[in-house]
Amino acid sequence: GAVVSQHPSRVICKSGTSVKIECRSLDFQATTMFWYRQFPKQSLMLMATSNEGSKATYEQGVEKDKFLINHASLTLSTLTVTSAHPEDSSFYICSASFNEKLFFGSGTQLSVL
Amino acid sequence: AQSVTQLGSHVSVSEGALVLLRCNYSSSVPPYLFWYVQYPNQGLQLLLKYTSAATLVKGINGFEAEFKKSETSFHLTKPSAHMSDAAEYFCAVSERGTSYGKLTFGQGTILTVHP
């Protein structure tokens, strides 16, 4: 089956710094990738849809200047959390669509101190 | 707006017992429905999905789910639990006509299987 690789799996950073999370489709080309966020004891929430070669589409309430998404190639999308604050601490998961199915990365646990 | 409710954040069963994980959705139009499983340190994997065909959907690993429009439910079942079924399960919906990846998830149910 199709594989989506997400790195890093865990990151701890200081408040005010930026963190980049990578999402790669290893054996298929993904024109569309999706970024989700999950707070403790809550559902996964869609943050944005990332389209190769164009601007990402953000869900209502998600700050596009804070969560920068770049989808420069058909196999890589990145999410950069800029000027991270403790309230940004969460579990971030990417997914990519292929043949009408969604394939998920294993997630990144971000902790902002 | 759509929403998904999974009743029970934790479910515990004995090996060999019936597994029943509950999912109810709210949507004005029957959506697409999914069940995903997440094993530790792995990404979510699709167990099964309902689009518009048979209301009883069979998935991988012996799981199945039945779409009941009158009850707005899509409960996941397995007749006999295995130890390897221990994982977290997510019910999700997507609105018909929207992008395949725009899912609304439930809060997840952690399944524990006892020997």
Describe what you observe in this structure.
- The complex is a heterodimer of chains A (113) and B (115).
- With 113 residues, chain A is mostly beta strands.
- In chain A, 0% of the residues lie in helices and 56% in strands.
- Chain A is built from no helices and eleven strands.
- In chain A, the strands form two sheets. In chain A, strands 2, 4, 5, 6, 9, 10 and 11 form a seven-stranded mixed beta sheet that branches.
- In chain A, strand 5 (44-51) and strand 6 form a beta hairpin.
- Chain A is globular and about 40 Å long.
- With 115 residues, chain B is mainly beta.
- In chain B, 0% of the residues lie in helices and 53% in strands.
- Chain B is built from no helices and eleven strands.
- Chain B has strands at 3-7, 10-14, 19-26, 32-38, 45-50, 56-58, 64-68, 73-78, 87-94, 104-105, 109-114.
- In chain B, strands 2, 4, 5, 9, 10 and 11 form a six-stranded mixed beta sheet that branches. In chain B, strands 1-3-8-7-6 form a five-stranded antiparallel beta sheet, with no helix packed on it.
- The N and C termini of chain B lie far apart (41 Å).
- The chains are: A mainly beta (113), B mainly beta (115).
- At the A-B interface, strand 4, strand 5, strand 9 and strand 10 of A face strand 10 of B.
Entry summary:
The complex is a heterodimer of chains A (about 110) and B (about 120). With about 110 residues, chain A is mainly β. Chain A has strands at about 5, 10-15, 20-25, 30-40, 45-50, 55-60, 65-75, 75-80, 90-100, 100-105, 110.
Present the secondary structure layout.
The complex is a heterodimer of chains A (113) and B (115).
Chain A: E1 4-7, E2 10-13, E3 19-25, E4 32-38, E5 44-51, E6 57-58, E7 67-73, E8 76-81, E9 90-98, E10 101-104, E11 108-112
Parallel strand pairs in A: 2-11
Antiparallel strand pairs in A: 1-3, 3-8, 4-5, 4-9, 5-6, 7-8, 9-10, 9-11
Chain B: E1 3-7, E2 10-14, E3 19-26, E4 32-38, E5 45-50, E6 56-58, E7 64-68, E8 73-78, E9 87-94, E10 104-105, E11 109-114
Parallel strand pairs in B: 2-11
Antiparallel strand pairs in B: 1-3, 3-8, 4-5, 4-9, 6-7, 7-8, 9-10, 9-11
